[in-house]
Fold these 2 entries.
Entry 1:
Amino acid sequence: MNKHMKIAICTGGGDAPGLNAVIRAATLASIRRDWEIYGIRDGYNGLLMPEEYPDGGLVPLTPERVRGITHLGGTIIGTTNRGNPMKYPVKNFDGSFTEVDRLDELIRNFQLHNFDALISVGGDGSMAIAKALSDKGLWVVGVPKTIDNDLEKTVITFGFDTAVGFAVECLDRLHSTAAAHRRVMVVEVMGRYAGWIALEAGVAGSADIILIPEIPYDIQKVAAKIEERENRGRDFSIVVVAEGARPKDGTFSVISRETGRAERLGGVGEKVAAEIQELTGKEARTVVLGHLLRGGAPSRFDRLIALRFGAAAVRALSEDRRGVMVALDPPVVNYVPLEEATRRMKTVPLDCDTIHTAYDLGISFGE
Ligand code: F6P
């Protein structure tokens, strides 16, 4: 397709290293085709509330604007995880919030600006919005982002490799201090309801115990593993806990539930550490890696995959592909229907090679 196009790109949900690389690749690939490309500020807020932005909520993307950003964390156009247009939180007079469906309004504003197509970069929430917009006739191509790696139909999402790399570096550092004090170090990592970060960082970072949402744990088994190590003269232990880990017969550890946003998980690391201390008598400390996993420069892998995804999204538009998500299907970048990509969350399969590797290394999942 050679027609001149005016396209928009947005980044939604929690940020992930590589967002700027996607923006740069999509911009350069568009300019090369003599298209115009604009960044929507803060998810869709730039189109839903333009009056809130001195620049009108849209950022004209040019080669100059995207110069030197491949290696930068964050996103130059901003993001939000309180801006789902299907459940937009609107403040009532009494200070409470009501969720409002603003999809049609968003599409109207999109058309008022004469945009032809949208590139939506985000995780499961953003892909569900992209699918809803596509179902209403908007021309959308999705790009899978999230440190959690919980999106179906792509082998990996960008951001995940950087998060795991940083977590492994932290585990390396924690080993020496744990050994010096003969302590149990409990390291809580993000990942929402999937254990990918905990599993891969835990195995690569030589954890002794890994607790993931896919395998509910028994704290007695966790304590038994620490005691068994103690009996072998291994008087310190490293426990990696996914924020979505939960005890058998227990529930997720939820920090807050707010209108218009996903529930926030956290705090399970502190609980596990307290219980370990109680059961084993060993001193336990908690480290929550949290947003450190999302910040900073993308790894070499994430830079490359983000650049490939951004360029592939523009190629998808050139090829008149609609309602698809760019996906890594090694060695190629492919396109999958948004319908398939949003059907379910990608959790850790219990029969995967990394789980078997963990068992063979003697790592416990607290079962
Ligand atoms: O989805 C990415 C993620 O970092 C999750 O791992 C985490 O639960 C969530 O976002 C935290 O989001 P925030 O603190 O930005 O609301």
Note: Residues 14, 81, 123, 146-148, 190-192, 243, 264-265, 294 surround 6-O-phosphono-beta-D-fructofuranose (CB under 6 Å).
Entry 2:
Amino acid sequence: MIRTQVAIVGAGPAGLMLSHLLHRAGVASIVLEARSRGYVEGRVRAGVLEQGTVDLLKQSGVGERLAREGLVHDAVELRFQGRGHRIELSRLARGRTITVYGQQEVVKDLVRARLEAGGDIRFEFTDIALHEVATSRPRVTGRMQGESVEIACDFIAGCDGSHGICREAVPRSQRAVHERAYPFAWLGILARAAPSRDHLVYAHHDRGFALFSMRSPTLTRLYLQVAPDEELSAWPDERVWDELEARFEGEDGWRPARGAVIEKSVTGMRSLVVEPMRHGRLLLAGDAAHVVPPTGAKGLNLAMADVRVLAAALASFYSGEGESALDAYSATALERVWRAQHFSWWMTALLHRFPEGDSFQRRLQHAQLEYVVSSEAARASFAENYVGLPFEAP
Ligand code: FAD
Ligand code: DHB
């Protein structure tokens, strides 16, 4: 039997950052991760960090490489009906910007920081089960290298992502689930090609949505809206590039530069919130508690915002201030979650092609897109949500 203060399930951005922030507050934790270190560090996912996420990483001492290698963007482009419209960010959002830096780089930096500080991350820890989460003596059991392991703790942090087991450990009668499915998915590629634009491009086209992004001066990241059950085999590289060019077509003749495709995958899209984010001594954070469609680039940023509040609440408990901050955790986190849910849903509905070919919906999309790019107030609202609202005092 091993003992710790906080047992954290999942070594994604939420679990690792929570462990890091707790360590800085003098609270002990063990991170339990089903996959290997190589798998977790190699998984290509999100790439846009909000200002608040960047500030949090830097202020907590894990932002050194981010400061060096992250690409600060002061604008994004909305492209539709053959024209691109640049939306400035910092001028419209009180000096705030976004930084392009891959999620897997954030994960690598956090793993390194935890291990260098003597942190306990157990990779390939499988068959996790949670016990007595509604009592003050919860336990986690699982297997590692063929051995059964049991961990006694004060709290369990469920940071195991959208397909984890922690959400299910909250009894059905004690949770509400709010959900929305979308009739499409994203096919994403990572290509060895210098980005041919210095900002992100979100394109709405009759053939479907497309997104141009990047990871570094030599890597381009691109996404295409596809059917939810799309087979990767139906999308050889040539077809992906041709379709991207068709959807980004415009008067300025811009197109993404082609290059060798080094990663290709399909991601489903949904919106989901589980309420509340706490059950007894089990605290949910990140995708374990809520999932957003990727259009607004909010998933990773929400995970970071959750654990910032959660780490402060746990630190307050351990400094003898009682449970009031923990009691407030769910409501505090959910306020931001619902704002981001709305923005992600809105941006998804604005930019994608809906399969039923609803002409009324399409006209609404065009009217709204025209409004967003032509009204200073609408642009400012877009920019403020896109760069992320400032954190309030936890
Ligand atoms: P995760 O990063 O999912 O981490 C959870 C961890 O828990 C994982 O390491 C997992 O292996 C581990 N785990 C799961 N179950 C168990 C278990 N039973 N026992 C132990 N460990 C377990 N967001 C964007 O903003 N833009 C994007 O382009 C984008 N693309 C995405 C592509 C994919 C394929 C996916 C799945 C998500 C994408 N997201 C994107 C969302 C974003 O990556 C997530 O919001 C972010 O990863 C949330 O971090 P997290 O730590 O909460 O969860
Ligand atoms: C990326 C992903 C997003 O979901 C998004 O809105 C912008 C960029 C990316 O992976 O680079």
Note: The two ends are 34 Å apart (CA to CA).
